[in-house]
Amino acid sequence: MNNPKAIKLESIRTATTEIFIETPQGSITVNHWSNCEGVNLMMVNQDLTPRFCAALTLEDIDALMVALAASRL
User: Which of 21, 24, 29, 61 is most exposed, with minimal Cβ within 10 Å?
Assistant: First the structure.
Protein backbone atom coordinates (compact mmCIF):
# COMPACT_ATOMS: atom_id res chain seq x y z
CA MET A 1 0.00 0.00 0.00
CA ASN A 2 2.21 2.79 -1.27
CA ASN A 3 -0.03 5.84 -1.31
CA PRO A 4 1.73 8.90 -2.83
CA LYS A 5 -0.78 11.20 -1.10
CA ALA A 6 -0.12 9.80 2.38
CA ILE A 7 1.15 12.20 5.01
CA LYS A 8 4.25 11.32 6.98
CA LEU A 9 4.72 12.84 10.43
CA GLU A 10 7.90 12.72 12.47
CA SER A 11 8.59 14.31 15.83
CA ILE A 12 12.05 14.94 17.24
CA ARG A 13 12.78 16.30 20.72
CA THR A 14 15.99 18.12 21.40
CA ALA A 15 17.22 20.27 24.24
CA THR A 16 17.47 23.93 23.20
CA THR A 17 17.92 27.21 25.01
CA GLU A 18 15.25 29.89 24.77
CA ILE A 19 15.92 33.41 26.02
CA PHE A 20 13.23 35.98 26.82
CA ILE A 21 13.87 39.70 27.27
CA GLU A 22 11.10 42.09 28.30
CA THR A 23 11.40 45.82 27.57
CA PRO A 24 8.96 48.71 27.99
CA GLN A 25 8.42 48.62 24.20
CA GLY A 26 7.81 44.85 23.92
CA SER A 27 9.76 41.62 24.13
CA ILE A 28 12.49 39.65 22.38
CA THR A 29 12.67 35.86 22.16
CA VAL A 30 15.76 33.99 20.96
CA ASN A 31 15.61 30.22 20.48
CA HIS A 32 18.84 28.40 19.67
CA TRP A 33 18.73 25.75 16.95
CA SER A 34 19.26 22.19 18.16
CA ASN A 35 22.32 21.84 15.89
CA CYS A 36 23.89 24.93 17.58
CA GLU A 37 24.48 26.67 14.24
CA GLY A 38 22.00 29.53 14.60
CA VAL A 39 18.92 31.01 16.24
CA ASN A 40 15.33 32.01 15.60
CA LEU A 41 14.74 35.58 16.72
CA MET A 42 11.41 37.30 17.30
CA MET A 43 10.88 40.88 18.44
CA VAL A 44 7.31 41.97 19.21
CA ASN A 45 5.54 45.11 20.43
CA GLN A 46 3.60 45.11 23.70
CA ASP A 47 0.42 44.22 21.78
CA LEU A 48 2.35 41.20 20.32
CA THR A 49 2.48 42.57 16.77
CA PRO A 50 5.77 41.51 15.19
CA ARG A 51 8.54 44.08 14.75
CA PHE A 52 11.32 41.77 13.56
CA CYS A 53 11.53 38.04 12.93
CA ALA A 54 14.50 36.12 11.56
CA ALA A 55 16.22 32.75 11.37
CA LEU A 56 19.95 33.47 11.37
CA THR A 57 23.16 31.47 11.47
CA LEU A 58 25.72 32.48 14.06
CA GLU A 59 27.82 34.01 11.26
CA ASP A 60 24.80 36.09 10.19
CA ILE A 61 24.41 37.31 13.78
CA ASP A 62 28.09 38.27 13.99
CA ALA A 63 27.81 40.27 10.76
CA LEU A 64 24.59 41.91 11.96
CA MET A 65 26.18 42.92 15.28
CA VAL A 66 29.16 44.47 13.45
CA ALA A 67 26.81 46.38 11.12
CA LEU A 68 24.71 47.65 14.03
CA ALA A 69 27.79 48.68 16.03
CA ALA A 70 29.22 50.50 12.99
CA SER A 71 25.93 52.31 12.43
CA ARG A 72 26.15 53.84 15.92
CA LEU A 73 29.47 55.59 15.21
Answer: 24
